[in-house]
Write a structure and sequence with these properties.
2 domains, 8-stranded mixed beta sheet, two-stranded antiparallel sheet, binds NADP nicotinamide-adenine-dinucleotide phosphate, 192 residues, single chain, 10 strands, 5 helices, alpha/beta
Length: 192
């Protein structure tokens, strides 16, 4: 069985988006990665795409992708599970398969794991979704793409008292062009 990986881009001061949900340049590294074999950003992206068997995201992240037609030409040809309280009337454009899950993170993960088989389940954000998975102890690893930008304000990922705290172990660091890719494994027990 694959792992459950939380994968997100984050600014140096801990934001995953600006105050009005603007991306603030956090995804620039992703969209400018080249086919040059020496481009480590591209290697990180290819690894993620090839290891992913299902993706989980929150409704706000889905809505934003839909709003900007971000699911047309989606590189992730895998089922996408969207946490929501209410299924949308119409589904985002493109050929991505969406499953809308209204009964919480455990059920979303259960369905995603079944769909993923031996591959990984990627938790793709946003903050609320990531925080719920983390506090429920459902994440095996976190991959953060640390972008050297100070946004100053916005949506934080880790400023969340319920973490209480969580212990992590750094397992990999890759220096990309204008981004550092860091992987952490969650420790099995909470520290007090
Ligand atoms: N930097 C990155 O890598 C990255 C990645 C992804 C997203 N983002 C950014 O993150 C921001 C969105 O994050 P967010 O924290 O505001 O929202 P989010 O986690 O994407 O979505 C939250 C919404 O999902 C639904 N939801 C979440 N948990 C649920 C549950 N247990 N049961 C039922 N519904 C549930 C609710 O929507 P409803 O009540 O409306 O159904 C909730 O308001 C956006 O700005 C996005 O661009 C950044």
């Amino acid at each position: 069985m694959g792992k459950t990986l939380l994968d997100m881009s984050i600014s140096l001061d801990g934001y995953i988006a600006g105050p009005n949900h603007e991306d603030g340049g956090l995804h620039h590294w992703y969209f400018t990665a080249s086919n040059n074999p020496a481009d480590l950003n591209q290697k990180v992206i290819e690894e993620l795409i090839s290891s992913a068997g299902a993706l989980v995201m929150g409704r706000r992240t889905y809505n934003m992708g839909d709003q900007y037609d971000g699911f047309i030409n989606n590189s992730y040809k895998i089922p996408h599970f969207v946490l929501t309280n209410q299924r949308p009337q119409r589904v985002a454009k493109g050929d991505t398969q969406f499953v809308f899950v209204t009964d919480g993170v455990h059920h979303a993960l259960q369905q995603a794991k079944t769909a993923a088989g031996e591959k990984d389940v990627i938790i793709g954000g946003g903050a609320s979704t990531a925080q719920q998975f983390l506090t429920s102890g459902l994440v095996d690893e976190i991959q953060l793409h640390l972008v050297p930008i100070l946004l100053g304000q916005g949506i934080t990922l880790f400023d969340y008292p319920e973490f209480n705290p969580l212990q992590l172990q750094r397992v990999r660091v890759i220096e990309g062009e204008n981004v550092t890719h860091m992987t952490f494994r969650m420790a099995k027990r909470r520290i007090s």
